[in-house]
Amino acid sequence: MIRQLSADIAVQSQCYLAEGPVWDPVARLLRWVDINPGHVHGFNPVTGAHTRFAPAGPDGPAVPRADAVPVGAIGLTIGGGFVLALVDGFAFGPAQPDVSGDYPLTRVDGFRVDASLIRFNDGKPSPWGDFWAGTMPWKEDGPACALYRLTPDGEVTELLRGVGLSNGLDWSDDRRSFYYADSRSGGVDIFASDPATGALGERRRFVTVEDGIPDGLTLDADGCLWLAVFGTGEVRRYTPSGDLDTVIRLPVDQPTSVTFGGDDLSTLYITTARENLTPAEVAAKPHAGDIFACTPGTPGRPPNLFTA
Ligand code: BGC
Ligand code: CA
Prior knowledge:
Elements: E1 3-6, E2 8-11, E3 18-24, E4 29-34, E5 39-43, E6 50-53, E7 71-76, E8 82-86, E9 90-93, E10 106-107, E11 118-125, E12 131-137, E13 145-150, E14 156-163, E15 166-171, E16 177-182, E17 187-193, E18 200-208, E19 213-219, E20 225-230, E21 234-238, E22 244-249, E23 255-261, E24 267-272, H1 279-284, E25 291-294
The structure holds beta-D-glucopyranose (BGC) and calcium ion.
Residues 17, 19, 35, 121-122, 165, 167, 183, 213, 215, 230, 256, 275 line the site of beta-D-glucopyranose (BGC).
């Protein structure tokens, strides 16, 4: 029997492409990005306060804009700031703008991808304290992409090439399995992972997704995988053996990613997108781009932190 759950609207954020949610246990905020307009959002579930800022470009409407600097993903650092995957490379910065509204961003020199063809997409700090993020093509027929690792000393390494559209990623508690969604591959794979170094080994298919697009993902405290299936309106949970055991149905079609949050990590937050919807489709699904929440009964795990 597959358990069916629903989710409530947590934040009416009306994002274009909300992505990369992460619970910040120190600030006690849910943080996420709206990729194309280059916004970083914060939400306090206790007070209901919702903020946003643009770390790398001008702030502006939550639509793709020529003047925006897209942000693919953020990770939390041990110092309380962010590591960012900007459209074409990595950067560091504090968790909020200064009092005058300026955001002091430090770019990592010496590494750029070609932002005319590809951009950074999902990323996360790893259990080893570095930051892993991958790229995706702007267009269907764009070039092959890759998964990269940024170490705290600023060194960037290509971990995996030949990627179609780099998306969700997470590691098992024993650090021996790396779960990875290349959205163009039609499923989620598991790589053997060296628990001491994170080096990737043998790759195998974990689950095949026949309808929709495998997108963002997170493991829960039981080692089950929660997967946003873009295009289906569903978030699905798979047991460690790959069996589907829970489906969360949303009132919007494009869930993009998931993370557990709240002080007890019991709330599953779900980011969604209005990317590529027509005005009529947005009118029919007005909560596309909002953040949803569901309490499925199993908590999540605290986020990994970047150790710089
Ligand atoms: C990307 C979107 C894409 C979606 C489904 C997301 O991670 O940011 O641009 O449409 O995955 O492939
Ligand atoms: Ca994603």
